[in-house]
Amino acid sequence: MSAESVRQAPEIKPAGLIRRLGAALYDGLLLLALMMIVTALLLPLTGGEAIMVKTFGWWAHAYHLLLVLIIYGFFGLFWTRRGQTLGMAAWRLRLERESGDRITWGDTAKRLAAACLSWALAALGYLWVLVDRDRRTWHDRLTDTRVVVLPKKKL
User: Fold this and answer.
1) Distance between CA 23 and CA 21 in Å, rounded?
2) How far apart are CA 102 and CA 53, in angstroms?
3) What is the pLDDT of residues 86-109, one digit of tens each?
4) Which residues face 146 on adjacent strands?
5) What is the Cα gyration radius of the chain?
6) Whole-angstrom distance, CA of residue 155 vs CA of residue 145
7) DSSP string spanning the chain?
8) How far is residue 31's CA from residue 87's CA, in Å, rounded to a whole number?
9) What gap in Å lies between CA 133 and CA 78, rounded to an integer?
10) CA distance linking residue 105 with residue 154, whole number of Å
11) Which residues contact 103 (CB under 8 A, 6 or more apart)?
C-alpha cells in the first residue's frame, strides 16, 4: 500500500454512548413492532386472550421462547450479514470483531447475553463506554467485539 492510500484510508472511530443508545432505540422500536405483529397473528389461536402462564400453561413458555428467538434472529441476521442492524445503519455504526471481521451466530448469542447483563446491572455495562479508554461496553469486552462509527459517504 502506498503512503498516499494509507493517508486517505478513513480512521475507524469507536462509537460513543449517544449513538449507541440512538441505534438501540431505533432497533427497539422495530423489534417491538415485529413482536406485536407475531403476537397479533397468534391471537386468533387464543380466542383473543393474552398469552399468560396461568391461562395457557406451557404454551405461554413456548410463546416467550418464540419472542426470544425473534430477538436473536433479528440481531443475528443483521450482524452476521452486514455487521449492522437498521438502527445501526441509521446512526452509521457497525459491529465487528476486534479483527474487523463480522461476528458469527455464536458471537451473537454471547453478545446478547452479555448485553442483558449490561442492562440488568443498572445499565452500568453501557455507561462503561464513558470511562473506557477504547469506548467499549462490558458486552464489547466480554465478546471481543467493538462498535465503530462509519465515515460519511460523499455524494
Assistant:
1) 5
2) 38
3) 999 999 999 999 999 999 999 999
4) 96
5) 19
6) 30
7) --HHHHHHSPPPEE--HHHHHHHHHHHHHHHHHHHHHHHHHHHHHHTT----HHHHTHHHHHHHHHHHHHHHHHHHHHHHHTS--HHHHHTTEEEEETTSPPP-HHHHHHHHHHHHHHHHTTTHHHHGGGT-TT---HHHHHHTEEEEEPPPPP-
8) 11
9) 27
10) 32
11) 79, 80, 83, 95, 96, 97, 111, 143, 145
User: What confidence score (pLDDT) does residue 27 get?
Assistant: 98
Sign of CA dihedral 87, 18, 114, 123: negative
Q: Are 86 and 30 in contact (CB under 8 A)?
A: yes
Read off the pLDDT of residues 7-55 as tens digits, 9 standing for 90 and up: 455 678 999 999 999 999 999 999 999 999 999 999 998 888 888 888 8
Written as nine digits, the cell of 152 is: 460519511
- Specify the pTM: 0.87
For residue 14, report the phi and psi dihedrals to the nearest 5 degrees.
Answer: -70, 150
Torsion over CA: 65, 69, 75, 79 (sign): positive
Q: CA 66, CA 64: separation in Å to the nearest integer?
A: 5
